[in-house]
Amino acid sequence: MGLGGYAERVAEAMQQCERAKVAGLISGTPEKLVKWGQKYNIPESSRYNYDNFDAIKDNPDIDAIYVITPNALHHDQVIRSARAGKHVICEKPLAISAKEGQEMLDACNNAGVKLLVGYRMRFEPNTLEVVRLRNAGAFGRLKFFQGQCGFVAGDPKQWRLNKALAGGGSLMDIGIYAINGARYMLGEDPVWVSAQETKTDPVKFKEGVDETIQFELGFPSGAVASCLSSYNISHLDRFFLTGEKGFAEMWPSTGYGPIKGRTHQGDLGKPHTVHQRTQMDEMAAIIFDNNTPTLPVDGLTALQDLQIIEAIYRSCASGKREPIKLS
Ligand code: NAD
């Protein structure tokens, strides 16, 4: 659903999938339905628009709907997909508020369908290698994580810079990778945050659309994270994790790859895989076989990220350290 830039990347990658394939299309642009329909060999009976896609409930060829539209649309579209009885994969961020996220979880639970979130890094081999080493105790007791995620947002007219469609600014879009990283690298969830926002271009980054946010997270073990989220700094794609016995460094850490990194023991060196292909095959295994992935990609994990995002925004506004309470 939503045949834009990222959907194009996902659909291309899915051509190499073993267990997932594009089986239907939802778009508001008739020409795209024709062009994509021909490319991916989708019969007209499996092409829908935003008005009529509820009829997917009667289409046995479709198991799941992947929502890849601007953030503010996810809430209604996921709920409608669930009501059509289909499993749902939703792009990040799950929604533009924790309240919406909870409603989406409830709708999927009520409909008895799975809700997964497009957190592709959670299937990436170098990332999983760091997690494996951490679980094996290679880094000892963890002390610190640093996550720096950002790019320069170009076109001032894009939906990402429109609060009504994006729900926020860099934090919702790219800073969420640093939040994710802090959680899966340290292997625990934060309990407090202290955050500051810096805005150098209030014309481009209007009220409610954050340009750059620096935030610190505190964890129950005493570990801390220092993170940066930006729409106005380039070459920002770097993770660093350190503990009493060793460290891991990844740079690039969340781009489309190849992901590169090393630890105190040497290069991570896991081969590059196309993230979206791996993600979709792994998600097929979650949907069809009830597989449990090493790192969760479920709706609750994504709802918790929204709760952390809201605490970061609260801290920016209050100028104080704010507690984080997760579902
Ligand atoms: P995009 O602008 O390239 O595509 C958005 C699509 O939604 C377009 O086809 C557009 O026509 C459609 N759309 C439907 N209703 C719309 C409306 N009311 N206003 C504007 N567009 C509308 O954006 P994108 O980069 O593909 O991002 C889509 C989603 O995917 C976002 O939630 C984004 O965060 C996510 N995303 C995830 C990754 C990732 O690596 N996981 C990467 C890029 C984007």
UniProtKB/TrEMBL annotation:
Source organism, top-level taxon: Bacteria
Protein name: Glucose-fructose oxidoreductase
UniProt cross-references to PANTHER family, sorted A to Z: OXIDOREDUCTASES (PTHR22604), TRANS-1,2-DIHYDROBENZENE-1,2-DIOL DEHYDROGENASE (PTHR22604:SF105)
Protein family: Belongs to the Gfo/Idh/MocA family.
Domain Gfo/Idh/MocA-like oxidoreductase N-terminal: 2-119
Organism: Sphingobacterium griseoflavum
InterPro entries to which the protein is assigned, alphabetical: Gfo/Idh/MocA-like_OxRdtase_N (IPR000683), Gfo/Idh/MocA_domain (IPR050984), GFO_IDH_MocA-like_dom (IPR055170), Glc-Fru_OxRdtase_bac (IPR008354), NAD(P)-bd_dom_sf (IPR036291)
Limits of the GFO/IDH/MocA-like oxidoreductase domain: 129-248
Organism placement in taxonomy: Bacteria, Pseudomonadati, Bacteroidota, Sphingobacteriia, Sphingobacteriales
Alphabetical keyword list: Oxidoreductase
Keyword Oxidoreductase: yes
